[in-house]
Amino acid sequence: MMKPILFQMEIRRHGKWDYKKDKLSTEGRKEAEKLSEQLPIFDYVLCSTAGRAKETATVLSKGKEGEAFEILDEIIETVIRGESAIDMMLQQGEKALVFLQKKMLGRRPKNMLVVTSGRLLGAMWFYLHGKTPHHLRNFHVFEPLKGIHISLNAELISG
User: Fold this and answer.
1) Residues 49-60: pLDDT tens digits?
2) N or C of the chain: less Cβ packing under 10 Å?
């Protein structure tokens, strides 16, 4: 028998953005608004310090503010390139997921939204799927507003 789902975490890349202003482009904002109509209401929102991530999180969370909206330096915006950085990327994905799990278990939201860079999102995806450095050689970042969904049930948390 399947245990009931206790928490759901939606991890998304920021929307299309204006590189010079570090904010969403007009197209990126419209796409984020359209996507927000399909997403649940989030109890808790985390995003990186980048302006594009903060703006995307605000749109996707339908304007949530206050304690339930947290901007974190721990979700690092980095561009990792080169063969020597592959192991570091997998470690970064693992570290980010452990950090997010602790945040989730500490706050106990039913639905949590995380908005970050495509590379960190990709690192988490590769870590979750047990990919090796070989798989990362042709790594491409997630497209704007794409992401991963994680559901945690009691069995996963306790076991």
Assistant:
1) 889 999 999 999
2) N
